[in-house]
Amino acid sequence: MADPFVKGRWIIFASLLLAMALVLIPLPASAPFELNYLRPDWIALVLIYWILAVPEKVGVPAAFCLSLITDLVVGTPFGFHGLSFVILAALAKGSYQQVRMLEIWQQSILIGVALMIVSGVQLLMMTLMLDRSSNLLQFMKPITSALFWPWVFLLLRICRRRYL
Amino acid sequence: MKQLFLARSNPRNQAFVLFLVSLILFVVDGKSAALKPLRQAAGSLVEPIIWLAVLPRLIAEQGSSFFELRDQQLELSELGRLSETLQARQLKFEALLSENNRLRALLGSSAKVSDLVSIAEVVGISPDPDQQYVMVDKGLNDGVFVGQAVIDATGLVGQVAESTTNLSKILLVTDQSHAVPVLSVRTASQLIVEGTGNRNLLSMRHVSESLDLKVGDLLVTSGLGQRFPSGYPVAEIARYQLAPGAAFSEVLAKPSSQLQTLDHVLLVFDSVKDLIPDVAVKSVGPADG
């Protein structure tokens, strides 16, 4: 008998790995550089999905570990993604029952707002603590992330039903 | 049974503690080099993830090169011709090099004219546009070290900020946190060029209005600070404005290297330690006595 806590866990790892690869893949050199501000935050979206879907498997500590790995591969100081992932994970874990009841587009809006708030926290810390200015175009990311949420949600739901 | 419930702490408290941990880590890692060894060790472990992101492009390159055989043959003959002309120029360069070294020996200077370089391929760029760096496919295994100067065929690119087993992160000169000491070739005035976070703009702070600068002046590394070898082009002054009443003039420059379309860079070896920078400056400056 497989342990229900371990069964199908690989699909969670695989989807997070894929999200990291999607974040890292460089745009072609011919594309305008500003397009980078429109790339959704794939890792946060996948993390939110798994917490909403299987909160007994993925929680705040997992989000924290994920944030450290993300900091390493993206090249941000340790803790930068922790600032957002930990809040997102806590919010998702605290309200997954209500959020699951919502329509997908309502979830999109909710996630967009949550991402907007945490990226505000991140940029504030960047400015206050490290004295580095950020382009306000960074606030486009939560919007595109919200637009991509339905597709992430549907795709990962298929994966979850098949493998988990 | 009760023990089990106690062991599982409240997720809200957990989140609060982990948020504080993140914040502390962020400040410590952002402001000091204390966690750099840890980053280097852990970075080597997560290298496969970065390679995973590089994979699709490598496959695409292989695929397209298969179809573009004819183009490549054309390119090859062109490169052959280019190499011939470069070799012809190299002949003269060798003579100049030995002459220069002789003259330097007469002056008692140990500054070297040529540096050892090693070529590296750019495999990734920063996904965060507010951070300007690229990843290259050479790492600790190839002798890359943190702080190493990186150039391309047209000028200074930046320096190695982090290095893992087979990958290195190269901070570009245009990153907000980057600064490089330079001198203007025309007047030998010393300046410090800083990154702006914009891919094709560099800036200079605290430039007094008495300094002789013009739009179009070439700025090369001065070698001061012993981090960058001297003499590599860094930027060209693009805008020089004297605001009446302001304490300093506003100077902006355009980087010499092609930072938007980097595909190969050169890592400079064996040049920083035994460099005495001021002789080159003296010979350009006004004659003394």
What's the number of domains of chain A?
1
Major sheet attributes of chain A: none
The first-to-last residue Cα distance of chain A is 15 Å
Largest interface: A-B, 49 and 46 residues
Structural class of chain A: mainly alpha
What overall geometry of chain A do the principal axes of the alpha carbons give? globular
Shape of chain B: globular
Average per-residue pLDDT of chain A, rounded, comes to 88
Spell out the CATH superfamily of the domain at 179-259 and 270-284 in chain B.
Answer: Rod shape-determining protein MreC, domain 2
Which sequence of strands runs across the widest sheet of chain B? 1-2-5-4-3-12
* Mean pLDDT across all amino acids of chain B: 81
- Helix percentage range of chain A: over 70%
The CATH class designation of the domain at 179-259 and 270-284 in chain B is: Mainly Beta
Number of helices of chain A: 6
Radius of gyration of chain A: 16 Å
Strand fraction of chain B: 25-35%
Brief descriptors of the model:
heterodimer, A: 164 residues, mainly alpha, 6 helices, 71% helix, globular, B: 289 residues, alpha+beta, Thrombin, subunit H, six-stranded antiparallel β-barrel, 5 helices, 12 strands, 36% helix, disordered C terminus
Structure, explained:
The complex is a heterodimer of chains A (164) and B (289). Chain A is mainly α and 164 residues long. Chain A has one domain. Chain A is built from six helices and no strands. Chain A has helices at 9-24, 42-53, 60-74, 80-101, 104-130, 140-163. In chain A, helix 3 (60-74) crosses helix 4 (80-101), helix 4 (80-101) packs antiparallel against helix 5 and helix 5 packs across helix 6 (140-163). The radius of gyration of chain A is 16 Å and the shape is globular. With 289 residues, chain B is of the alpha+beta class. Chain B has a domain at 179-259 and 270-284: Rod shape-determining protein MreC, domain 2 (Thrombin, subunit H, Beta Barrel). In chain B, the strands form two sheets. In chain B, strands 1-2-5-4-3-12 form a six-stranded antiparallel β-barrel. In chain B, a hairpin with a 7-residue loop joins strand 10 and strand 11. Chain B is globular, with a radius of gyration of 24 Å. Classes of the chains: A mainly alpha (164), B alpha+beta (289). The interface between A and B is large, with 49 and 46 residues.
